[in-house]
Amino acid sequence: MKIEPNTVVHIDMDAYFAQVEQLSNPGLRGKPVIVGFHGRRGVVASASYEARKYGVKAGMPAFMVDRLCPDAIWVYPDNAKYEDMTFRIVEILRPFTPVLEVYSIDEMFMNFGYGEITKSYWESLGRKIKKSVRDGTGLRCTVGIGRNKLQAKVATNRAKPDGLGMILPDEFEEIWGNLDIDELWGVGQRSKAVLERFGIRKVKDVWHYSREYLSHLFGAFGWVLWEMAYGIDRSKWVTVYDDDIPKSVGNSRTLNENITDFGIMKRVLLALCMEVSSRMREKKLEGRGVSIAVRYEDFKTITHQRALPYPVQDFWKIWHFAVELLCEVNPEKPVRLLGVCVWDLCLAESQKFWTEDQKRYKLIEALDDISHKFGKNTVIPAILLSHKNLDKGYRPFPRILV
Ligand SMILES: [Mg+2]
User: Fold this and answer.
1) For residue 174, how far is its CA from the centre of ligand 1 (angstroms)?
2) Digit-coded pLDDT (tens) for 223-244
3) The model's pTM
4) Could you give the domains of the chain?
5) 83 counts as catalytic
6) DSSP assignments along 69-87, one per residue
7) Which end of the chain is least crowded, N or C, by CB within 10 Å?
């Protein structure tokens, strides 16, 4: 097993949205600030450290915050502002190394490649990066350094807030073995409870088990758990620069036969939206505009578009707007091609502001996992399985309808 001893730096902005708000509005400094939607179904997107002292955390529902910290100052999220700031941070980090991954709106990974692992090298690198971010934006971040993304991220989590964490190779075994099992990436409360039943509380408890036995017990998760317990990380690097962001993501399909049935057109749009949305998720993008294209049998093509009140990535929401646009076009002749396009793209939010969104986000994540494992379109909305489609022998996307 080959492990590249790279120098990987993880940057995590401290209480990002709250810090940006406090930076742009001095009246909020030193106060318990919560960025989020303060409604019946609202949740905390980001809480300042002053608010965290009361036990407020990101993801907490608004009613709980009211109980814990009634004096909290709520600020409605201004995504464009945070995103602009992220681009500024990326610009600051870019000269350090070309291998830079924007992991989420407030987290980045940087790879400095093989070699040069000394404590003083890591320390001065970490301090330089922290200082550049602080000088360039006025914001504080925590920096973690390790041999791969997993180790760097754990190093960050141990150093929050405003810290510099390092997991040096010669300290690795000592630090890593003594981590609580849920300090590993992707081990949540549920997995923690299950692992506890097998006597696994610390990472070193995993060392008593073989990889085969763990995967027998927990499937793919067991395999990954074993690797993580030894600090192995196989995650790919997705380097995203702002000029790599495409203008739009679209998909269109010429139909097997011209159609007049509005119900079928809607289904074709849904399949197209799923494809578009999946590509957007891969690239971590969302978009603020949707357009559709309708080509009639005489090849006359109509496009119709709309700017949206909020950015979308979820195929269900894209579909909702696409169907509205289709209603407005109201095709009166047989249609031979349909297309969907999402434009005005930006990097997607890592955090969702409404509990409903969080649920859908989790669902879509689960669907993506299934697609990765068993192939695309293994699970599809039931509407695409309609008898009407099958009876007519109408198969716009064989992999979907077969
Ligand atoms: Mg953060």
Assistant:
1) 26
2) 999 999 999 998 877 776 545 5
3) 0.62
4) 8-14+83-229 (3.30.70.270), 16-80 (3.40.1170.60), 248-393 (3.30.1490.100)
5) no
6) -TTPEEE---HHHHHHHHH
7) N
